[in-house]
Amino acid sequence: MRILLVEDDEIQGEAAQAGLSAMGHGIDWVRKAGDAEFALSSAQFDALVLDLHLPDRSGLEVLRDLRDQNLATPVLILSSQGQVDDRVTGLRMGADDYLPKPYDLDELEARLQALTRRAAQPCVTILHNGALQLDVARRQAMVEDRAIGLSAREYGLLRHFMRHVNWVFSRSELEEVLYGWSGDVESNAVEVFIYRLRRKLGKQWIETVHGLGYRMPHADP
């Protein structure tokens, strides 16, 4: 799941980014409303986690503009315990859920999973490409009934390829999948994780498209 986190508090933002990344999600963390609007216009996200009190504009304004553009990205708003009026206003303006601060990261992730499940029509829990399967709910890969153990980032990268079979992704696009825009990216990170997936699954599952990037070719059932 690729998530846009809009949070100006440094400590809470770092904690949410680190925790959700460790759970296998791609996190783009921005601190201002203007940066959030630019990110939403430049990329697609599975969910938006939106703090209501930002230094340049209200999070409610970001939410209003998002819905005015008919963008259906699921939105979870964050608010302090006493901000009942803001939470009610946010839900009426099109937010899908809210979570009061301080919050538990496991609950945040569970709520985001629920939002994206409701948004998906239909909800696909097992991805298939020939003999390769990925159980999204259990985060379990299988090749010809052989279970494959995956790290959080290996899982996230494989899920991205399996959702976009035959699509070619550049190195920079795959870096965003692995780390998000605001993560520190090692120079050879993409190559390392591609190598690991090939070693575990088989080289045939991820092809190098010279000069362009990588793709997962379509496999016959």
- Our Rg estimate from Cα atoms comes to 18 Å
Cross-sheet strand order for the largest sheet: 2-1-3-4-5
**In CATH terms, what is the fold-level topology of the largest domain?**
Rossmann fold
Q: How far is the first residue's CA from the last residue's CA?
A: 26 Å
Judged by helices, strands and strand pairing, the structural class is alpha/beta
What's the level 1 CATH class of the largest domain? Alpha Beta
Helix content: 40-55%
CATH architecture descriptor of the largest domain: 3-Layer(aba) Sandwich
The secondary-structure element order is EHEHEHEHEHEEEEHHHEE
Low-pLDDT windows of residues: none
- Mind describing the biggest β-sheet? 5 strands, parallel
| Whole-number total of structural domains | 2
Number of strands: 11
Q: Note the beta-strand portion.
A: 15-25%
Continuous helix count: 8
Shape: elongated
Q: What is the CATH superfamily classification of the largest domain?
A: Response regulator
Mean model confidence by pLDDT = 87
Protein name: Putative DNA-binding response regulator
Modified residues (4-aspartylphosphate): 51
Domain OmpR/PhoB-type: 124-218
Subcellular location: Cytoplasm
